[in-house]
Amino acid sequence: MIDYLLNHYNYWIVIFLMMVGFYTVISRGNLIKKIAGLSIFQVSVFLLYISIGNVTGGTVPIVTEGATVYSNPLPHVLILTAIVVGVATTALGLALIVRINEAYGSIEEADIHDQDKSL
Amino acid sequence: MIESHLSLLLVVIPLMAAPVTAVLPNGRLPWLFATIIAWTCFALAIWQFSLVAGGNVISYELGGWAPPWGIEYRIDIVNAFVALIVSGIAAITLPYALLSVEKEIPSKQLSLFYATFLLCLDGLLGITLTGDIFNLFVFLEISSLSSYVLISMGRHRRALTASFQYLIMGTIGATFFLIGVGLMYAETGSLNMADLSTRLPAILEHRTVHTAFAFIVVGVALKLAMFPLHVWLPNAYTYAPSAITVFLAATATKVAIYIMIRVVYTVFSTGFAQDTPTNDMFLILGIFGVLFASVYAIYQRDAKRLLAYSSVAQIGYMVLGIGFASAMGLMATTLHIFNHALMKGALFMAVGALVYRVGSSRIEDISGLGRQMPWTFAAIFIAGLSLIGVPGTAGFISKWYLVLAALEQGAWLIAIVILLGSLLAVIYLWKLVEALFFREATEPDGPIKEAPLLMLIPTWILVLANIYFGFNTELTISAAKTASAVLGQVTP
Predict the structure, then answer these.
(1) Do B167 and A92 count as a contact with CB atoms less than 8 A apart?
(2) Measured between CB atoms, which of A52, A85, A99 is closest to B160?
(3) What are the boundaries of each domain within chain A?
(4) What is the pTM for the complete model shown?
């Protein structure tokens, strides 16, 4: 049992980060914290992909002498693309928060909601 | 020469054109350029559709790498049909957009606006054409990120919060999709959808595959605004600039429906959705979507928001069609993707014309306008009839096949719900018609002119298309029939 937990520690980290990020997005009213949670959520998926790509006993996927087993490089490539997407999402989210702050003078969800309601 | 690269050109042309549009000087030039690009894409999409209409499949290997290692663009009738809708709506929206956008978007952002529009078009076309599921995710994010930007350009400050909410929910949906793709890759080592469909049946009982399926279905359900994951949609459609509402309402959710069909029927098999409670879930949520969203629509005080809720209800119909898991149900969904794009496009265009003249879409602000803007009013009336599903309009055809699909399975209750949904549509559309035509104008300061011709012509092209496809159903029905046959083929 302990072995099972320890041998898959990277997957436990993935699940932990995923839940932390997801919970932050849902529970926090501060828009910046929401975006931070969203980033953590996305990063956990990057870790998931990289864990999948690992081959037991495999080395870096560069052809060298003395190596016969290589890790799968494809998930790495996929994740490079996903990181770019994640960065773009975070940047856009933060830019929207700047605009929201200019328009409402607040980045608290409840505040913004009240201001909209009073109209 | 061009023919062999056709499917790739549809993606490459708008992608290359977007940065060019961004550096063009502000004014009408970026609009003209974007319009030419959209019409080029439309022409290519028609050509592509004619190539696969008989049930052929075009396979394009990107960079000459053979699938399943390389990225493959795989075009069958389903892709070609959805690509035709997307590029067609873009081509008709852009001429309409010129005046409305000039009024709603600051003049120094025009070239960036049209560049983002082309990126959004590119993402949506890419989703439909690609045969690689990770590539699909990338295009999904291209279209989503650009639509967040486009929505946030609305005049009201609530456009910003609407866009932010959409960004949060859309990203969660896309990330769920990504998790599902990762788990499937871990199980099969493949990302090519056709290849996945041959590898998955052997391992369908694996728990990882079940998890992957659940993540993908929920993720896509967020994107297509399936009830009760629709909460981002009404605000986004209400506060986006008019032209963007037209474009997104007619294409974005439809493309997400296409992803759902692709995943459920091609990647996994139909039998898999039947063994798991997925189809029942589709049916139940479809019923709730149709009923609740229609009732919500009745209580709205803003014309755009009313139509947005009606969109959620119409998505309920499409989800019902997927849930039936029969050839007839799929045919109804495919038909409704097409017909709903026509009717919602026309309705949002007409409401956008009202917004252009009075600057608001609140029902109290637009009441009485029907007599001053008769052509716009008539467009709303006819497109509304199509939305209700009156015989002689396009909306009738898809509702008819949906009811047939329900009766085929003896689901009387669902057939009644479909009819009830139409009755509710009568109520909320009557509310609009009553306000526009029978109420007195609130601000009688001088007569309001009819909408400009450049906005009326695209609106009426869509309105007439609603009537045309209500009588001449040859194209749509044969396409939908072949599509459901192609999707059925893959299943064992």
Answers:
(1) yes
(2) A99
(3) 2-118
(4) 0.92
